[in-house]
């Protein structure tokens, strides 16, 4: 399957080369294997968790830290990886993540922000979301009478309930890769780095890699970049231009700033809140609040999410913390700069703070009406959530770096599947959508 002699082979004998081995990659590879197509997976990190991976997994940043942790509701990370925002090694960031599955909302896929907009609707991603749900055991919950009753009451207070599946323990991907390798169609090259790219016209026809076993040349049929929201940008540029592009800036970096924004004293609906804790404990069903979709669209507010978290241990008391997960809109001044190691220059801008305040004003009034008095914090501290997105936006508009199929602009056989292609990010945890994009891309490549 791996070509050393650089001779041009018929397309059917050439593998698809997939860079990265996280959720996006696994969905692409799973689909291609089902279509009987050979795949080479090129992984920058090692096959085992080691300290070298911890160093590789750090991200250089300016202004706001790009670091994980905080209100993560129990992420379990291996030693040496505390606060690391991604995982470079076989299995990708699935080795660290907290397992909260939530797809983007319909409104996120519909909304335009400046010249950015998803080029398809949530309906068109539905089949891929369902395939991912099936692959990773995301349940479709049966209706719960207490919750449905409450939903009606919550909606009467102009709030929307959001449901998230909190998988415990979160799926990791090592076993899945071993299984894919056993198919005989998948070859994994670990600890490999791209050192050369040759083009024929607008196609990549040869890749040169450095590996612990020596240099390797591969003649790909097509190339998929699935290296996460930060590294996918550098690799796509390298594949597109044949150069590393040191110093180039890619704007529109987004994360989900989060923090404790206030306290609620529940004077009403305490049985409802206790029920939410039961749903979480027994069905891993996490419930949060958002504003109605039509209001967000009409007033141009971010699609932010608010969680209620018991101040006491089990939710039997009246004190609840309000924790926010914000949507950030894409801004040019938040960018990735390419270099020997890509650097993220990102801040929680005045526009984000203002938008959060508009949201909090509405949220606190409505939660007060529904449950009891809300006291907003005076000095709110926000931090990122390790959900990098947005520097290679997908779309039809002028901001487009990737087309609706996932093809990188200017290169006919290079594709990207990652949160880097999110034109608008909402505040949903990104992985379900990322994996669905991988699944959708596999269907496209399989058909081709
Ligand atoms: C602590 C933590 C908790 C999280 N919790 C959640 C959560 O609860 N819910 C949620 O939805 N999201 C969560 N996330 C985010 C989630 O982990 C990512 O959205 C998801 O793993 C992204 O998958 P991916 O396949 O796009 O990228 P990754 O899993 O990051 O995979 C990228 C792959 O590319 C490889 N790679 C990098 N550079 C190169 C290169 N140059 N050449 C070859 N290979 C390369 C990496 O080694 C890796 O295998 C969390 C993140 C962190 C850090």
TrEMBL record:
UniProt domain Glucose-methanol-choline oxidoreductase C-terminal: residue ranges: 384-438
InterPro entries xrefs: FAD/NAD-bd_sf, GMC_OxRtase_C, P2Ox-like
Alphabetic keyword roster: FAD, Flavoprotein, Oxidoreductase
Domain of life: Bacteria
UniProt keyword Oxidoreductase present: yes
Required cofactor(s): FAD
Family of the protein in this entry: Belongs to the GMC oxidoreductase family.
Name assigned to this protein: GMC oxidoreductase
Source species of the chain: Kaistia terrae
